[in-house]
Design brief:
- With about 425 residues, the chain is of the alpha/beta class.
- The chain folds into 2 domains: about 45 residues, no CATH class; about 350 residues, Spore Coat Polysaccharide Biosynthesis Protein SpsA, Chain A, CATH 3.90.550.10.
- Helices cover about 30% and strands about 20% of the residues.
- The protein is built from 13 helices and 22 strands.
- Strands 2-22-14-17-13-3-6-7 form an 8-stranded mixed β-sheet, sandwiched between helices. A 3-stranded antiparallel β-sheet has the order 1-15-16, with no helix packed on it. A 3-stranded antiparallel β-sheet has the order 9-21-18, with helices on one face.
- Helix 7 crosses helix 11.
């Protein structure tokens, strides 16, 4: 009890320092277990970090003398048969030597799909129905059979779906994948802040937190021993993608061989930006640094500029398909990536202690993005692929990236051969 009282006083001091005493408004109504949970959470939060991020985000960063340069890229459909064969053979040699691993970033929920549960457990309405995790697993199993190996599969979860994701894999017997080659690790979280600069309660005994973006994957891998495990297995190349793109080639010897042949440490697959006015960000160099940037910084001339071969200079966009050499992961994991602020709608406990669902965005979320790691390197290999070949993400139920579209593209690629 003495230790509990000491922790309570420590928590009160933290809150008073940052004007967040309201988080203890319902403390006396909690049972002992709930009191302990809330106090422990308060004592573990880095209040300085979250409020520094909040204050910094109030000021728009103006980049003086912005210098923008195009990046070289390879268009897959323009490669000759000889080139395809050459690069693929290099990649296949690496994969067959058990130097390749896959990371799936699966920390999200299926909320935007009207689905309750981890997004990776959402089922695509094909015959027979398959979850997003099972579809990914089938891609890996096909490669394992082809190369007579087992590819290590690392899955990043979040505090909100970790237990349910692991339970799902147990119930499905890991889809027949060797369990000793499947690893789960959790990404970190940060508290949300409302428009008044206050942290909010998710429950009377729990401060609302959210995962801090896919850019946290590097630090989380280091923190949870994933990088050490990869090194023990002598992994040299690691492919990163989300959980929801059902036709993405996650074991692509051509992409791997192209990157190795060109002696690059990082690589990304890209798509052609068909409409110059859409909001998709493009690959480029900004003030000498690799980046994915908002095309609003481009002049009208730059948006349609071409090279001497008639290829557009600023029309390659991100589809979340990245390849990293293990040495680059060591480098990134020791660097703090920049945080970006997003304005989101989140339920909260109001002053009366009741759960309230706002009608419009009410909280700020801070997150890092995986592509901000590109700025740490001088070069990147870009391979432009076709949408119908590798891009069928499931983002929400009614948008352009919905389950029906994904089903159609999946069946076209895998079921109508």
């Amino acid at each position: 009890m003495v230790n509990m009282m000491q922790s309570y006083e420590t928590a009160k001091q933290f809150l008073a320092q940052y004007n967040q005493e309201h988080l203890l408004n319902f403390y006396d109504e909690l049972n002992n277990e709930e009191k302990e949970q809330l106090i422990n959470q308060i004592c573990q939060i880095d209040f300085k970090q979250i409020f520094d991020l909040y204050e910094a985000s109030k000021t728009d960063k103006i980049i003086p003398n912005l210098s923008i340069e195009p990046l070289p890229y390879t268009i897959k459909k323009e490669l000759s048969q000889e080139e395809l064969k050459y690069y693929t053979s290099i990649g296949e040699g690496c994969i067959a030597s058990q130097k390749y691993a896959v990371v799936t970033m699966a920390g999200g929920q299926g909320t935007r799909l009207g689905y309750k549960g981890p997004k990776g457990t959402f089922e695509l309405d094909i015959e027979p129905k398959k979850s997003l995790f099972e579809i990914l697993c089938e891609h890996l199993k096909e490669a394992n059979e082809k190369y007579h190996i087992t590819i290590p599969w690392y899955i990043m979860t979040s505090i909100y779906n970790d237990a349910l994701t692991k339970k799902f894999f147990e119930e499905k017997n890991f889809f027949g994948y060797p369990r000793e080659y499947v690893y789960f690790f959790k990404q970190s979280e940060l508290p949300l802040i409302d428009v008044s600069g206050n942290l909010i309660l998710e429950e009377l005994y729990k401060i609302k937190e959210a995962s801090n973006g896919n850019g946290d994957v590097f630090a989380s891998m280091k923190q949870h021993g994933i990088l050490d495990d990869m090194k023990k297995r002598r992994i040299e190349w690691v492919f990163f993608s989300g959980v929801d793109n059902v036709i993405l080639e996650i074991v692509d010897p051509l992409f791997l061989g192209l990157t190795i042949s060109h002696k690059k440490l990082i690589a990304s697959k890209t798509l052609f930006k068909e409409n110059v006015e859409d909001k998709d960000w493009i690959f480029a160099k900004k003030n000498g640094k690799l980046c994915i940037m908002n095309s609003c910084h481009l002049t009208d001339e730059m948006k349609i500029a071409k090279d001497e071969n008639g290829h557009y200079l600023y029309r390659d966009i991100n589809l979340l398909a990245h390849l990293f050499h293990i040495s680059s992961l060591d480098k990134i994991a020791t660097v703090s990536l920049p945080y970006h602020r997003a304005f989101k709608k989140n339920a909260f406990v109001n002053e009366e202690g009741m759960k309230e669902i706002p009608e419009s965005p009410n909280t700020y979320k801070f997150e890092t993005f995986i592509f901000d790691a590109f700025s740490l390197f001088d070069e990147i290999e870009l391979l432009r692929v076709e949408k119908e070949d590798e891009f069928a993400p499931i983002k929400d139920f009614n948008g352009i990236h919905n389950p029906e579209v994904a089903k159609e593209l999946y069946e076209k690629k895998y079921c109508l051969k």
